[in-house]
Amino acid sequence: MSAASSSAKPRLICLTGPTASGKTELAIALAGELNCELVSVDSALVYRGLDIGSAKPDYPHHLIDIREPQQPYSAADFASDAQAVVADIIARGKTPLLVGGTMLYFRAFLDGLADMPAADVEVRQAIEREAAQSGWPALHRQLQEVDPESAARIHPNHSQRLSRALEVYRSTGVPISEWQRQQPSELPSARFDLRQLVICPRDRKVLHRRIEQRFQQMMAQGFLQEVQELYAQPQLHADLPAIRAVGYRQLWQHLDGECSLEEAVERAIAATRQLAKRQLTWLRKWPELYWMDTDEQGNILPNQGSQHATSASISDPLQVALNYIGANPI
């Protein structure tokens, strides 16, 4: 791609990393230096009332607090909403900066999704009623009969994905796996001059300590009381995507009497570490991603291997990011 053709495209910045890596702080710092607006890429931040446990930022982000917790929100919903928001930001002469850790949302926006059928509320509600009576594993067996390929990928207790797969088949007669093979001819990311960054502690022990410290801080800020308020709402239940979010799920289990508060906290910290591991698995496969490894204090570490392009002479994450983006070269 020539420099001229690249410069003719609008700039789009993507900043990601595992949970507790410092990406939100860096994004806010970048917003203070650049003519950009932040777009949240986080499956928990979309829900109203999920504040403490989702580490909801005070700085303005698009696509935060756009759903009630009883309203499911999918990767396809995000891709559609993000496209509209990004187009609006660019039309106003600013640069969109997508920041978050929900990798499936990033993929849906950048790589596109098959032209899936719209949601059918009546079919979805019928599926939820069946699940309440028979359990999600029974519905998973139904999916195995009509779409074994999808059933092999979806855990019997992953209610959101299982419900969507059955909904698509019942609405169209075509398995969702077949719809997913119909990929768009041009990737949405081809429309932009992309700058894609990841920030992450190089030492995984540092990341694990941050995860535990942040969760304990959330508890001190009243996370349990927040979940108790959600628990008291009759329209909410444990199978909703919002309540299945890491941290919320484990405290909900405590309120259901499944475990002590101490055990719920331990489970939540362990689940958050597992989430970070899954996020890193996604990131290692992400093409053209600029890595910024940090130490325990959050400073950038020198280049270590071809995957990590960080300059050895700069330790400030903001400066390194600005240099990579091309906004403030040294």
From TrEMBL:
Site (Interaction with substrate tRNA): 102, 124
Interaction with substrate tRNA: annotated span: 42-45, 160-164
Residues that coordinate or bind substrate: 19-24
GO biological process, one term: tRNA modification
InterPro entries cross-referenced by the UniProt entry: Dimethylallyltransferase, IPT, P-loop_NTPase
Cofactor(s) this protein cannot do without: Mg(2+)
Keywords in alphabetical order: ATP-binding, Magnesium, Nucleotide-binding, Transferase, tRNA processing
GO molecular function terms noted in the UniProt entry: ATP binding; tRNA dimethylallyltransferase activity
Residues the record lists as binding ATP: 17-24
Family under the similarity heading: Belongs to the IPP transferase family.
Subunit note: Monomer.
Function: Catalyzes the transfer of a dimethylallyl group onto the adenine at position 37 in tRNAs that read codons beginning with uridine, leading to the formation of N6-(dimethylallyl)adenosine (i(6)A).
PANTHER family according to UniProt: TRNA DIMETHYLALLYLTRANSFERASE (PTHR11088:SF60)
Name of the protein: tRNA dimethylallyltransferase
Organism name: Sediminihaliea albiluteola
